[in-house]
Amino acid sequence: MNFDQLEMITEVARTGTVSEAAAQLHLSAAAISRAITRLEQELGVQLFVHSRTGAAITEEGRRIVRLAERILGEAEELLAEAGRCQKLVNAKVRISTVPAPTWLLVHALLELREDIPSLELEIGEKGTQEVIEDIRQGKADIGLIVSEADAKYPDIRLEKIADGQMALGVGREHPLVSRASVTMKDLEQLPLVIYPDKHLEAIIAALGPAAKVLFRTNNRDALLLAVRRNMAATLGTDYSFRGIQEEAGSDIIAVPLSIQTDSDLSLWLVRPRDRKPSQAVRLLAGRLRRLLKKRMQE
Fold it and tell me: Are the CB atoms for 273 and 23 separated by under 8 Å?
């Protein structure tokens, strides 16, 4: 048993197919299949049931994969500690991201800097297509976008790191703050301040004449000031409000928005398909996954 095998089975479990796992790990499907077979023989259990449609994980496999994820996480921490003294001195990771998950990147940097004091992140906030082009042109090592549908390119690979849903951000004195959820009817004639974003604009368009947008801006501070003072409410994904709430405490409350939508609001990690990630990039990606999973479960 080795770390490569553990990484392979966790990736097959995540993607559901050997071929996709092979693409993500920059290996051949045959190499992964052989490694899994050897591991199954060594452990004496069947991890996956293979078919033409993919690789279905067994109950025994599920338990083994959970243990493998824990071991890989601890190994990552060990690598980070070693990197502080050796490989990752003066490491730099360039990140291109839509605004919503910027808070997550800052928290990841704070945690990683404890292990790798010299790590430097270069973060640029951009629109989705600009993020994708930064990855394709080699201007960024990692990208974060909200919609998979916008990134159908053969030279990039996507990894979903969080499911998302739309929420309404209100001040703590707002009339809707105690609601378990709000509906489109609740948004009618409700003063709103929003980012210029296609997902938000779709909601405004659905409201039609009943929409009441006070202003649109990319200035985050202006949006939050309007919400804190109960001048208006704002719209965003639930994971974006996680960061706002950590900064503002109980000043901003996220209320789930109960609507029917075809929009994909998941958060996606974007990387180039033809370039193997550096150790610093892999460490950062792993920390982002764990941080987001932890925050969304709180």
Answer: yes
